[in-house]
């Protein structure tokens, strides 16, 4: 079979969520900027740029083993924003509570689907395919995101590292296959990260495809499968080419 035929033959279609089905980096950056501006408004001595730099340091130190300990998104954010305020001697519980609201509201307004993502999921639904989202992050946040994006009715299963207790590179894919009774040869998985998505999935025998909008699609070699848009996948499903 050709690669398009192999893809079409799969009963399960798996996807990462952040920066694969929606513009997470952009939405998160906008939400964080709203937080920095709110903090600056409460204390003009601390610039937005300094707050951004401090927060980037906090993220670098906090994300190594994050999202596998069962905590909620609010708990993660409270911890990080709390460290931000503490670093600049701005400890204020009421301000911290407000920052959580500011972040959530801004995130909601900034959520944007990747071009063609909704149409692709609708096509898969019409073809009777099963859709599973395997992603990192707090379970409550990812469930909220799928709901806000209007994707819930097209997703059969949502699994997060927070729920499984393992990251993608530490065996998450194998655990998910076993838990949901999915054979590795019966699923194709799409993600935007070569290591955490593609390589980790392939190590479990899954046909994995890199989603990269900055490069042209490559569909002639299973070891370097890549799509540059969801329209390409839609064309494969409809025309098998």
UniProtKB/TrEMBL annotation:
Signal peptide (UniProt feature, chain positions): none
Domain of life: Eukaryota
Pfam families from the UniProt entry: HAD_2
Chain ranges passing through the membrane: none
Record GO terms (molecular function): metal ion binding; phosphatase activity
CDD domains, A to Z: HAD_like
Keyword annotations of the record: Hydrolase, Magnesium, Metal-binding
Key word Hydrolase present: yes
Record bears the keyword Amino-acid biosynthesis: no
Gene3D superfamilies per record: HAD superfamily/HAD-like (3.40.50.1000), Putative phosphatase, domain 2 (1.10.150.240)
Protein name: Glyceraldehyde 3-phosphate phosphatase
